[in-house]
Amino acid sequence: AERRMAERLRGTLGPLGLEAHAFKVGWYNAVLQPAFHLPYPDDTLAFVVLSTPSMFDKALKPFVNKERLKIIRDPVDQCVSHHLSRVKEKFPDQRVDIMFDYEMLPSRKPKFLAQTAAHVAGAAYYYQRKDVKLDPWGRKKIFGVCIHPKYGGWFAIRGLLLFPDIQVPFLEQPAPVDCVSTEEKRIELLEQFNFHWQDGRYRDIIEVKERYSEEQKAYFATPPGERFRLLGLSQEAQ
C-alpha cells in the first residue's frame, strides 16, 4: 500500500517541486516526549512533505497568478495548503489528515516537530548539539537544523500527510544521509545556523545540486507583509 501511495504522491507533488517521504508514526513518537506525540497508532502511515528550490517557479508563481485575489495570508503557506488539500482528492477512498508547519496548538506548541519528522523519514539529517562531541558553546542555547543530501539548507519542511486507515507494520526505516559527517563541519554548521543565519551560509555547508534563485532569495528575505508587492499582489489583497 505504501509504495502505491508514494508513487501517486510523487506523481502529484513532484511536478510542483515538492517531495514526500514516508514514515510510521511510531518512529516519530519513539524519539519524542509524550507531549509531542502524534495521536495515532504506531503503524499508521504518514508522509512528510518538503519544498525544494523549484517549488517557487513550479508552484508558487502559477498559484499567485491564478489566485491573486484570494490570497489573504502568506502566499507560500496558502499555496502549499491549496496543493496538499488537493492531494486529498487523489485519495477519495481514504481518510487523509493534513498538518501544516505553521499550525499551532492552543498551547502555542507546533502541531508537529518538522525537523524530527524529516529525520525519522530519512528525508534530511537533523543535526543537533548532541551530534557534536566536544561542544564549544557552554551555556548558550543551540538550535538544531536539518540538512538535505541534495539541497543542503535550501529547502523547507511544509507539512505532514497522515493516512489513519492505513497501517504499515513492515515499513523499513531509511536512515537520513549523514552528509555533514565531520565534527568540524557540524560545529561550523550549528555556529552559522545559530549566530549568522541571516547570511544563509549554513545552507551551503555541503555541495548542493540546486539552490534558491536570486529572485527567490529576495522573496524570502523580505518581511512577510511586503512579499505581496514582490509578487505583484496589491496590499488590498492582504
From TrEMBL:
Any single Gene Ontology cellular-component annotation: cytoplasm
Compartment list: Cytoplasm
Organism, scientific name: Callaeas wilsoni (North Island kokako)
An example Gene Ontology molecular-function term: FAD binding
Keyword presence, Flavoprotein: yes
Protein's name in the database: Cyanocobalamin reductase / alkylcobalamin dealkylase
Reactions this protein catalyses: apo-[alkylcobalamin reductase] + adenosylcob(III)alamin + glutathione = S-adenosylglutathione + cob(I)alamin-[alkylcobalamin reductase] + H(+); apo-[alkylcobalamin reductase] + an R-cob(III)alamin + glutathione = cob(I)alamin-[alkylcobalamin reductase] + an S-substituted glutathione + H(+); 2 cob(II)alamin-[cyanocobalamin reductase] + 2 hydrogen cyanide + NADP(+) = 2 cyanocob(III)alamin + 2 apo-[cyanocobalamin reductase] + NADPH + H(+); apo-[alkylcobalamin reductase] + methylcob(III)alamin + glutathione = S-methyl glutathione + cob(I)alamin-[alkylcobalamin reductase] + H(+)
CDD domains reported in the protein's UniProt record: MMACHC-like
Stated family: Belongs to the MMACHC family.
E.C. number: 1.16.1.6, 2.5.1.151
GO biological process: cobalamin metabolic process
Keyword Nucleotidyltransferase (UniProt): no
Keywords: Cobalamin, Cobalt, Cytoplasm, FAD, Flavoprotein, FMN, NADP, Oxidoreductase
Cofactor (UniProt): FMN; FAD
UniProt cross-references to Pfam families, sorted A to Z: MMACHC (PF16690)
